[in-house]
């Protein structure tokens, strides 16, 4: 019981650190006013430079992360990197091309997408097998309720009056890209837990630094390849303000503190999130991340003088926190119920002497076997 409480407390601390890091990164992303793909690649390069030494130490001291990597490990790296790339492209494009409230709302649909994907997988597993032990469970009604509560909070928060919406009216293509970002976020979460989580098929319990360093590297390469296909894009600009080249982040006017803050805080948040998945249920982490836009709005007000969070934003944040709390309560009850059911199914069966139990090795020949 104490071990579980420690695991849960550690997961919550990691989750809080992830949300705070992303909240602090919000003003940096907003201040780096360049092409959205350039900003994405700059962020990736800065993150890679920031995490290079920790990544090298992980490769040296964590045996499971060293080459040769299995085919499943390479597949996991590809899945994390590609989903991360699609998630950030959708988000950055949505922020630039549609109303900010629409981008905030649609990009935070990943908890709902996770439940939809779980429902489809459960339905498919029932079509493929008649064995109950091989069937995936459908999401429970409390999970739908908790995600619904958090979604209400996101709607309330994202529809709060904002000057950003006056500058950028809603568009269909911008909304679709933002919605795609939410879907990509769901696959990003599933990729991390499926290949590198506690029961990962690639590297089980892989350090968050390993997962994020490899994923960010692939995301950055994909971003650079995308920019290479855009006419007029240059690798290095020749004169000030040095803000139109793929490698110009080191000489940009925005380098300190915005690009460095953007690159370091973003990947720090992702590392903490990756670690939190090892200690908390997937749905708890996913729902908790919907609080990030509220924190970003708050930090933008405190650090760069943006609009102060209004009453509607505060109410939305409270609703989201309520959804997070409900999710934790329901998941803890589910864990206890499953533990009790497993205890009953594995209950010892007393033999005719009242001493032996099923599955227990007996002295002599049986014990040796």
Write up what this structure looks like:
The two termini are about 35 Å apart. Helix content is about 70%, strand content about 0%. It is globular, with a radius of gyration of 23 Å. It is mainly α and about 375 residues long. It has one domain.
Descriptive keywords:
369 residues; globular; disordered C terminus
Tell me, briefly, the overall form.
Answer: globular
Number of helices: 14
Low-confidence stretches: 349-353, 356-369
What is the C-alpha radius of gyration, as a whole number of Å?
A: 23 Å
Summarize the structure.
The protein is an all-alpha fold and 369 residues long. The protein has 14 helices and no strands.
Helix and strand layout, with pairings?
Layout: H1 2-31, H2 36-61, H3 71-97, H4 100-106, H5 110-128, H6 141-158, H7 163-167, H8 172-196, H9 208-228, H10 255-276, H11 282-288, H12 292-304, H13 311-345, H14 365-368
